[in-house]
Known about the structure:
The protein has 353 residues and is mostly helical. It has 16 helices and no strands. It has helices at residues 3-10, 14-42, 44-63, 68-82, 84-96, 99-110, 112-150, 166-171, 173-193, 196-203, 208-236, 240-259, 265-279, 283-294, 299-327, 330-348. Helix 14 (283-294) packs antiparallel against helix 15 (299-327). It is globular and about 50 Å long. The two termini are 37 Å apart.
Amino acid sequence: MLAPHIRHAYVLSLVQVGFVLDSVWIGGLLTLLPWGLLADRIGERSVLGMGLGGCAVALVGAAYAGSFGLLVVLLALAGAAGASVNAASGRAVMYWFPAAERGLALGVRQTAIPVGGFVSALALPALGLENGLLFLAGLAAAGAIFGAAVIHDPEASEDVLQPRKIGETLRDGRLWLLCSGSTFYLVAQIALTGFVVLFLYDERGLSRGEAALVLAGVQVLAAALRIGGGRWSDVVGSRIRPLRLVGLVSSATMALVAVLVSAPLAVLIAALVLAGGFAMAWNGLSFTAAAELAGRARSGAALGMQQSALAAGGAVVPPVFAAVVSATSWRAGFAIAAVFPLGGVFLLRRLSA
Length: 353
């Protein structure tokens, strides 16, 4: 949502904007697994309070960054600190809900991302860069206070007969397959959610606010699909089968966007919202599957590992996608991104449904 503001304020190329988006992923890549291990050791409350508090401080600094380099560093620090919420909140849900309800619960938990994106899409374009970053810092600070005050660390029985050792969890081939497949899914998600505002602003003549409203529509659909997908996985007793189907639909709808790049605006926007919703629909299913593979006692480590894999992919995709678009076209960029969910589906075929 702030990409056009950042590009204007620092006079950046599309590839440089990709590196700005990249910085948050790189920061998270360095800390996601340590945060997960720490959550397993000291509990969710402390991890959420420390991490989101640090994120708020870094975002305040980013709001007043005097150079492109300093902005990238501070956003990376914000990503590193904010990554605490991924493993900690997911681990809490693992303890609070039984397996028959966990898909829905984690699907609801994962709607925090599209809901946050919806709020940001409505608020940030009007606030501008400095005030927008301060707004995000305020939200992070509120999350830190809420997490420290409300989250509790309950005792619960383990889902498996014996708690697994940390090394066994991190070497689990099934978890590596899940991480790899999910990272392939991520390409389509970043291509749309990270660049749709710039695409509509630069190529189709929408204002920043109008383009952000399209992204807000994506977030609404994504939230509904995450909840529905989680509930569906509870009913069928599988996370992997719904996850594979979502990947197929994500690839198909992303390919449709590539075909419709020059279509009438109303048709293109409908395709973007549909493709963006499905490109984000898989996260809750993947999140639940990773936690359940490890069991409750090691869920923080498993989620940290999975999110680290996603952060590694997220660190690569924005600048590469921007470079592909700059060298070819938006149509080619979207078409290439559509192939990656199919690769994820292929990898996930090796996991039992």
